[in-house]
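Before going further, learn to read the protein records used in this course. The integers have meaning only within a learned vocabulary of local backbone shapes. To see the layout at work, look at the sequence and tokens printed below.
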Amino acid sequence: MMRVWPMWSEPTADRVLQATAGRILGMFVRRRCSAYRAADTRVSALAVGRLDTLVYLEAKRNAAQVQYLEEFHLPALFPLRDGAFHAPLDVPPTTPVFADAIDPALAAPAVEAP
């Protein structure tokens, strides 16, 4: 069963994600953004069986992490496996292409965060 963490607004998100075991997707969003509202209703359904944990991260409260990860378009999707960062997913999180991109991203070797 996939765990979905509610909106995480603490600036320590990177440390929490790196300390969490399993297949994780950190998704940076803006709470009042229409892309977040659209993704919120679809991501969980598309990711079932592919992720252990889905974490929504408030980009405004985690601005330093968003800047560090060099991400300028939201929602931004960052897969991790057992705390190791994998290349960001560059697909819309509301389409079946998103679901098909999760497994290869997590199967690829971990990379250093930007």
Q: What stands out?
A: Helices lie at 13-18, 34-47, 63-68, 96-107. The beta strands are 3-8, 23-29, 53-58, 76-81, 84-85. The chain has a mean pLDDT of 80. The chain is about 35% helix and 25% strand.
